[in-house]
Write a structure and sequence with these properties.
Shape of chain A: elongated
Oligomer: heterodimer
Strand content of chain A: 5-15%
Helix content of chain A: 40-55%
Strand order of the largest sheet of chain B: 1-3-2
Order of helices and strands of chain B: HEHHEEH
Structural class of chain A: alpha+beta
Strand content of chain B: 5-15%
Strand order of the largest sheet of chain A: 2-3-8-5-7-6
Largest interface: A-B, 29 and 28 residues
Helix content of chain B: 55-70%
Number of helices of chain B: 4
Number of helices of chain A: 29
Structural class of chain B: alpha+beta
Largest sheet of chain A: 6 strands, mixed, barrel
Radius of gyration of chain B: 15 Å
């Protein structure tokens, strides 16, 4: 009962406080009147009666004030009033307000944008049920390859599924699958995945419409069904609600649509638009045909830890090694949390950016603090007077903080809007290597983080003016007003320290930006091994339904090339199965004739090319010959059906040099490291190229003839007199003439391809440089502010110096020296910070060491220069002072 | 005497609550009654009546309504709530115990 009463009182005092206040006034007046009456009745004179009554009741205004502040919720209402007051004050000082808002908006927008990326990519849990229990299984095959982990073998998967007790189902995904969608519109190539029916229960997802695959659809012959992504359904099929049951033609084969997935299902990545059932070649299950071609996903059973799962899988692998010594010798398993693999690579870069943006925010905070403190200094008299009149210092300090609130609110809102716009603009440009881009958005947690940052900013920035308000002392203020030469000692010193802190924070940013810029310029000067100018590229997925045999594919490629080379303006054209710097590769393990059997096989980039490929790409022929169309299959079937009978090969010069040093590679023989693979003869040596990236060079290249090893995913490269849209259009037209149903995709000039391979570095460098520039700007303003204020405070002193005979140049030098001193002080500290922080950047650099002297020297020089520039105007003002005026004035 | 403020605050509350225990009263009447009953010994200190009344009201021991006073004017009448009544009994018992103890000590020592 009492609680209700108290609650009712609380509500009433919240919503009816004005009323309550008025009522209390009435009550007091009633009391006064009665007391006066009683006094009069007791015989006092009217004046005395009134006075006595007032004395008896106490100070009326004081009582009312006390009542107001004792009322529940008074503190909050006071804060609101302070904020309103602060807003009015801001309205009268627009320059200050705008500057403050800009500073806050800048800091908040940068932090919010970067944090939303970090959160979406690294911190946010995967959009599946209980994602922390999802793991990926990978094969370790040190004997077969130098890669640390590779995909999974179907036969091993069967064994694991049967033997383990730590997972439920282990789902398999074949993630490299192109589908040519034809019928009702332009032929389009879709990125899809073949998945086992257990994938959806393992991930714990349900479709938006329809159903996912059933177990019997995992069988060959029953797998002509498809699941569409939400994006594909809306874009290509107009969000047709009756899509379930419709048939679509994928690569010439009719499939029935059984469902549509939700928009947030983007597994394995955001470019996947289609899923079909995974059917496994029975020869793979019986180990007749080897291959490590599948991604494996599983869910840990309840109560099972990652370590337990790993050790059980190790036990199973060891058993398989014994059971199948031919195929499983030294084959192991790695169990990894599902998300980790993708983000490992980008994590360092993201964290560096987060650190940089925190520096920016801190600098903005310090700038804001200086700004507020300068403003509070102009109100020093007001504060001193209010303290003298009885205001409590706590109230003044709280008020000083509350007055920051409107700047924070508007600046914060502007910052979030700016960040949202920046993120939206960034997403389509995001580098392909950045995983989980689909999870980047200004979501709840990101906003909460921004709000927290905003509040901390407000507290940090408001601390200085609050302290000034607290210390307001009328005597000191009056004394200062008479222009002593002290110049507001303590405050100036504090502000000087703040600026030094800003400089100390800017320096690491500048050094870091310098390092990244030097890395990037070193990177773009790397010779890729081919000449990308005037070359265009595009990709083709050749449907096996239309060209079932390898010979059919080869013939199709030959027809295409014949037609394309006839296009005017085309110098030469060729094809390769994986475009250099295109982001995807293909590797194989090789054995060499005459090598000792316990030597590990070499993993190489294996490529299928047409004869003119090397000429088109500008890859030099060093020895021997290129392929010709006269290299026909030597005889019929080899033991490995998908390879055909391979008999000629071209190696790159790096392989030739390391494998056969001092001798010619021509005529030597090698083979793929599969049991029963035939020997192949080397007929040519070409230049080595960078395939994975300009900054890495892990493998050599080996080239096979397209007639002998056909592939149905090919990249076409065309060298023209001038590579531009007209050439591209002509080439696409030529392809249409040969086969109107053949879609082409990823049409780009080779220069663009090379650029795109560096986009992640470019982006990091740009962002860090942007942050460094913004911070430098803020710091310059900070230095200017402090020096200018100092000059204003000491204008009399300068006047005296000039009157006593100092040259104007001396005064200028004096002020400039102050600016330089601030810069040098901050630089000293900043260099120490930079030395530590840049060590963490090691993995991001290329061709540059973290301790690179050029960057460490250039940054301080830049800072000192900037500080001098900032001090120049105040220095001029100090030097141009008329001593007579200043000595006479005030 | 220990903490004078606390003691004074507690006793003012007790006096007020006891005064309005019998019938609802407005602020002036409460002040008068306390003066009368204590034969002018207890004069509520300046400015302590209304803060005490408001505190008691916030705590929920007393509640107030507007009414008409004896001279036909609008006044705010305070009365005990049920919880307040119980609180009063408890506090009164405590006070009597305390003052009894003090008296005993003063007499014997």
């Amino acid at each position: 009962m009492r609680t209700f009463h108290r609650l009712a009182m609380l509500l009433r005092s919240w919503f009816r406080s004005g009323e309550q206040d008025a009522e209390f006034g009435d009550e007091l007046r009633f009391h006064l009147d009665r007391q006066i009456e009683a006094n009069l009745a007791a015989g006092m004179r009217p004046a005395d009666a009134t006075r006595a009554a007032h004395l008896a009741i106490g100070h009326v205004e004081g009582l009312r004030e006390e009542s107001r502040s004792a009322r529940s919720g008074a503190i909050v209402r006071q804060m609101l009033r302070d904020i309103a007051y602060g807003s009015r004050l801001l309205g009268k000082a627009p320059a200050f307000a705008v500057t403050g808002i800009l500073i806050v908006a800048l800091g908040i927008s940068a932090v919010t944008a970067i944090f939303s990326v970090v959160y979406g990519v690294v911190l946010r849990p995967l959009p599946f049920a209980e994602p922390e229990r999802l793991v990926g299984l990978w094969t370790r095959a040190p004997r077969l390859t130098s890669l640390p982990i590779v995909q999974v073998n179907a036969a091993d998967h069967r064994e694991w599924q049967a033997a383990n007790h730590v997972f439920g189902d282990i789902a398999l995904v074949r993630s490299i699958a192109n589908f040519n969608l034809s019928g009702n519109g332009e032929p389009e190539r879709l990125f899809g995945a073949r998945v086992s029916s257990s994938l959806f229960p393992v991930l714990g997802v349900t479709p938006a419409i329809g159903r996912t695959f059933t177990e019997d659809e995992d069988e060959i012959g029953h797998d002509s069904v498809a699941l569409l992504s939400d994006g594909l359904w809306r874009r290509r099929f107009g969000a047709d609600p009756s899509i379930v049951g419709r048939t679509i033609t994928l690569s010439g084969v009719s499939h029935t649509v059984v469902g549509v997935m939700r928009p947030d299902f983007q597994y394995p990545g955001r470019e996947f638009q289609l899923w079909t059932p995974l059917t496994i070649n029975p020869d793979e299950i019986t180990r007749k045909v080897p291959g490590y071609n599948f991604l494996a996903v599983a869910r840990l059973e309840r109560g099972v830890t990652l370590d337990q799962a790993q050790s059980e899988m190790n036990t199973i692998s060891t058993r398989l090694e014994g059971a199948y010594p031919a195929s499983n010798r030294e084959i192991g398993v790695r169990v990894v949390p599902l998300m980790d693999e993708a983000i490992q690579v980008v994590r360092p870069a993201l964290y560096v950016l987060l650190g940089a943006v925190s520096c920016l925010l801190l600098i903005a905070c310090l700038n804001l603090s200086n700004l507020l403190s300068a403003r509070a200094a102009t109100r020093a008299r007001e504060f001193a007077m209010r303290v003298a009149l009885g205001a409590s210092r706590t109230r003044l300090a709280l008020q000083a903080i509350a007055e920051v609130a409107p700047v924070l609110a508007i600046g914060g809102a502007a910052g979030v809007v700016l960040a949202a716009w920046a993120v939206r603009a960034f997403i389509p440009l995001a580098p392909a290597a950045l995983p989980r881009v689909e999870s980047i958005e200004i979501s709840g947690p990101v906003l909460a983080f921004s709000a927290a940052i905003l509040m901390i900013t407000g507290l940090v920035a408001g601390l200085l003016p609050a302290m000034q308000a607290w210390r307001a002392d009328s005597i000191t203020v009056m004394r200062e007003e008479s222009r002593s030469t002290a110049g507001g000692g303590r405050q100036s010193r504090t502000r000087g320290i703040l600026v030094i802190a800003q400089v100390a924070l800017v320096l690491p940013l500048l050094v870091g930006a310098g390092l990244l810029m030097r890395s990037f310029s070193a990177l773009v000067q790397v010779d890729p091994g081919f000449r990308p100018d005037n070359v265009i590229s595009l990709h083709l997925a050749i449907p096996r339904s239309k060209y079932p045999k390898d010979d059919d594919v080869a013939r199709f490629c030959a027809r295409l090339l014949e037609r394309i080379t006839a296009v005017p303006g085309v110098v030469s054209a060729g094809m390769v199965n994986r475009l250099p710097l295109g982001g995807v590769g293909q590797v194989n393990a090789l054995e060499f004739e005459g090598q000792t059997s316990d030597k590990a096989p070499v993993t190489v980039d294996s490529r299928t090319v047409t004869p003119d490929y090397f000429r088109t790409m500008g890859i030099p022929l060093i020895e021997g010959r290129v392929f010709t169309d006269r290299d026909t299959p030597a005889s019929a079937v080899a033991s490995l059906p998908q390879l055909g009978a391979v008999s000629v090969v071209i190696v790159d010069e790096q392989l030739a040099r390391t494998r056969w040093p001092g001798a010619s590679a021509i005529g030597k023989r090698l083979r793929l490291a599969f049991p029963g693979a035939p020997w192949i003869e080397v007929v040519g040596v070409v230049g080595h190229i960078r395939h994975d990236g300009l900054d890495v060079d892990p493998r050599t290249q080996v080239y096979f003839n397209y007639l002998q090893r056909a592939q149905d995913r090919m990249a076409l490269v065309v060298r023209g007199a001038h590579a531009g849209p007209p050439l591209t259009a002509a080439v696409v037209q030529a392809i249409r003439e040969v086969d109107p149903e053949q879609p082409v995709y990823d049409v780009r000039s080779m220069n663009e391809v090379v650029e795109r391979s560096t986009v992640q570095r470019r982006l990091s460098t740009l962002l860090l440089a942007a942050f460094a520039s913004m911070s430098l700007l803020l710091t310059t303003v900070g230095v200017y502010g402090v020096i200018a204020y100092g000059v204003t405070q000491q204008i009399r002193e300068f006047g005296i110096r000039l009157a006593l005979g100092a040259a104007r140049a001396d005064v200028t030098r004096l002020v400039l020296r102050r600016g330089a001193a601030l810069a040098l002080g901050g630089t000293a500290i900043g260099l120490a910070i930079a030395a530590v922080l840049t060590r963490a950047m090691g993995s991001l650099l290329y061709g540059v060491k973290p301790g690179d002297p050029a960057s460490f020297v250039a940054a301080p020089l830049l800072l000192v220069f900037v500080a001098l520039v900032a001090s120049y105007l105040p220095a001029r003002r100090a030097a141009s002072v008329d001593p007579a005026i200043t000595l006479r004035g005030e | 005497m220990g903490k004078p403020t606390d003691l004074v605050q507690g006793t003012v509350d007790l006096l007020i609550m006891k005064t309005i225990a019998l019938e609802p009263m407005h602020g002036w009447a409460i002040a008068q009654r306390i003066r009368q009953l204590s034969k002018d010994i207890l004069l509520l200190q300046q400015g302590s009546l209304y803060p005490a009344l408001q505190r008691l009201e916030r705590e929920g021991w007393i509640t107030a309504d507007w009414g008409v006073s004896e001279n036909n004017r609008r006044a705010r009448f305070y009365r005990l709530t049920r919880a307040g009544r119980k609180h009063l009994e408890k506090e009164q018992a405590g006070w009597e115990r305390l003052s009894g103890a003090i008296t005993t000590v003063l007499r014997t020592v």
